[in-house]
Amino acid sequence: MSTIVKFFVAPDDASAALVVRTGPGRAVASLSFGNVDPEEAVVEWECLFGGGSFEELLEAGEPRIVAGGDDDACVVFALSDRLVRALAEGEPPRLHDVAVEWARQRAEDGQPIDAELAGEMLSGLGALAHGAGELGHGLYCWVA
Fold this sequence. Notes:
The protein is an alpha+beta fold. The protein is 49% helix and 17% strand. It contains six helices and five strands, in the order βαβααββαααβ. It has helices at 13-17, 38-50, 54-59, 81-89, 92-108, 115-135; strands spanning 5-10, 30-33, 64-68, 75-78, 138-143. Helix 2 crosses helix 4 (81-89), helix 2 (38-50) crosses helix 5 (92-108) and helix 5 (92-108) packs across helix 6 (115-135).
C-alpha cells in the first residue's frame, strides 16, 4: 500500500510528469489519501462505473503511467477520460452506490475500507474531476 496518494489536476501529461519527485504543490487542486492502492482503486472504480473487467483494463494499459515506474519511489499516472467523465458527471446517489460497492469488494478481498470514507473519496474526486473538465485538464495521481 502507498504511504502518500495525491490526486491532482494538470493541463497535460507533461505538466503532470513534472511533479513526480516532489508531488503536486499547494497551488494545484488536489486531494490526499493514505492507505489505499490507487492504481488498483482507479481500475476498480472504472469497472464499477462503466463495466468491463479488471483484466481488460490492465491489458489496455490502465492506468496510464506518465512518470516514474518500476524502479522509482514515486509515480504519476493519468486517470482515464472515461473515469474522469464518470466521476465529474456522477450524481451523489451514483457516487454513493459505487462507493458502497467498492467498499464491499475491498472487504471481500481482505482490504476493508469504511464505506463512508469511500463515499467521501469518490465525492471529492467527483468535484476535482468536474473542475478539471471545466478547465479542459486531466486528472492524475501521484504516489510516493
